[in-house]
Amino acid sequence: MAEKSLTLVTKFLLMAFIDCPEWALLPFLLFLFIYLITPLGNLGMIILIRVDLQLHTPTYFLLSHLSFMDICYSFVTVPLMMAVLLEHRAALSYTLCAAQFFLFTFFGSIDCYLLALMAYDHYVAMCRPLLYVTIMRRKARLGFVCVCVGGAYVAGVFSALVWKVSAFTLSFCGTNEIDFILCELPPLLKITCGDSYTQEVVIIVFAIFVIPACMVVIFVSYLLIILAIMRIPSAGGQAKTFWTCASHLTAVSLFFGTLIFMYLRDNSGQSSEEDWVVSVFYITVIPLSKPLIYSLRNKEVKEALRKILNRARLS
User: Which residues cross the membrane (predicted)?
Assistant: First the structure.
């Protein structure tokens, strides 16, 4: 049965609002708005970091790559979501579904690694200032961030390959219809058949490796930061120091909270509506929110933006 199903499934049919097509217009317009705004916000963050010398630090170098990943993430996912909503269904070849799944997990994995690296960067800056001064020297800084970012990209490729190979060596049978707007892991697992134990174990183990491992780095980094902050004598100094981490903590909470809900849970018996809400949140809202989080809650970014606006007004 499994072998037969694998030969028969040459495409997947993504579906949305089949029973209530009139409900699709509002989400389509919302996704279109987000699709237009998200690249502008993240591209603006990249340009701001590039042109302002005060932002030429490891933290903002990592943030610029995080913004670039969010732009790519949006380009890979949102157009397909809008096509499904507009037509209420979209046929996707097996190869194209696998490619979209690979890119989706690739950019998402790199986001995990970059957020973990940013937490470690905050730890070094606050708890090991002498080491940070050494890293901040131009040549050392360039080597450090290139190695870190390069490692994140390599790990992202490896993570995406493992997930893609594991997911698309599963047997699909019964139907190729997916009541979802993307080739995503939870809805794909719902149409599998045959013996998929090995692949599902690999997927779960690797999810446990990627998501909690990054969370452990973030947790330990912030635990050490909090201990360092508690040694500051004044309450004002403690608040000021912790406030520098507020934007990163907000982004981490939003990103990892949704990933945990999607991947580190039992998908059997879960409703498509739950998958819909959470997927839409982390695919569209989180990439849109990061520029806002890092601009509205970050004093250095706001100052850099103010200087550029003043220059533009004077010229």
Answer: 23-48, 60-86, 98-120, 141-163, 201-229, 241-264, 276-296
Q: Check if the beta carbon of residue 117 is closer than 8 Å to that of residue 49.
A: no
Asked if residues 16 and 89 have their Cβ atoms less than 8 Å apart, the reply is yes
How many Å separate Cα 197 from the centre of its chain?
Answer: 27
Q: Are 73 and 279 in contact (CB under 8 A)?
A: no
φ, ψ (nearest 5 deg) of residue 89: -165, 155
Please say whether the beta carbons of 27 and 190 come within 8 A. no
Q: Report angle CA 156, 161, 164 to the nearest 5 degrees.
A: 120
- pTM score: 0.85
Q: Counting every residue, how long is the chain?
A: 315
According to DSSP, residue 191 is labeled T
Residues lower than pLDDT 50 in the chain: 1-7, 269
From the list 79, 72, 278, the residue with the least C-alpha distance to 156 is 72
In the chain, DSSP finds a helix count (H) and a strand count (E) of: 13, 5
Please give the Cα distance from 214 to 237 (Å, whole number).
Answer: 29
d(CA 224, CA 219): 9
Boundaries of every domain in the chain: 22-300
Residues facing 11 on adjacent strands: 93
The percent of residues in the chain predicted with pLDDT above 90, rounded, is 11
pLDDT in tens, 134-156: 666 666 667 777 788 899 999 99
Ranges of beta strands (E only) in the chain are: 11-15, 89-93, 171-172, 177-178, 192-193
d(CA 278, CA 285) in angstroms, rounded, equals 10
Q: How far apart are CA 224 and CA 216, in angstroms?
A: 12
At 206 the three-state DSSP class reads helix
